[in-house]
Amino acid sequence: MEVEMEGKRGWMYDSQTACSGILAFTNYHVIMNVIAPLTVFFILRKKRIHYLVFFYNLLLWFVVEDVGWFVINKMVYQTAPWQTTAASVASSIVPLALLYFIHKRGIVRDTRFDYILLPINFYIWFSYPWASPFDPNEPFSPRHNYCN
């Protein structure tokens, strides 16, 4: 859904959504970033979980959502103006570091979704053969209809 809302140029560039004044977020991004932890909490609410597990699941949600936009738009992850090498490193290292701390503390949890980190990290660092660099001058064609 976010791919449709944000558009091919990303970051709600072509929308009428106003900038929020909070970092570089639009009002849409602020609302989305409130919905994400509520969603993760709702999914995990019936289980008693460690705060590290909650934080890991929330981070995994954001990383998958972020990289998913690039996969669907067939763009190289590190070429968009809002992505940096630091973001790539953080998206790769922080989830793995949290997994390490969770394992070291002996916290028992569902590990089925951990495997998504393999293709996600592969795409972050090796997407050039399948994707093209971000192009801010790519023509934008509004739909001009109500989809009916």
Helical content stands at 40-55%
Instruction: Output mean pLDDT.
Output: 84
Q: Radius of gyration over alpha carbons?
A: 17 Å
Structural class call reads mainly alpha
Total separate domains:
1
How far apart are the termini? Answer: 19 Å
Indicate the low-confidence ranges by residue numbers.
none
Number of strands: 0
Strand content: under 5%
- What sort of overall outline do the alpha carbons produce when their principal axes are compared? globular
**Count, helices:** 5
Q: What series of H and E elements makes up the topology? A: HHHHH
Q: How many strands, what sense, and barrel or not for the largest sheet?
A: none
Account of the protein in words:
It contains 5 helices and no strands. It has 148 residues and is mainly alpha-helical. The longest helix has 22 residues, at 51-72. The protein has one domain. The mean pLDDT is 84. The chain is 51% helix and 0% strand.
Short description:
The protein has 148 residues and is mainly alpha-helical.
For this entry, give a set of tags:
148 residues, 51% helix, mainly alpha, single chain
Topology at a glance:
Elements: H1 2-6, H2 27-44, H3 51-72, H4 85-104, H5 117-126
Helix pairs in contact: 2-3, 3-4, 3-5, 4-5
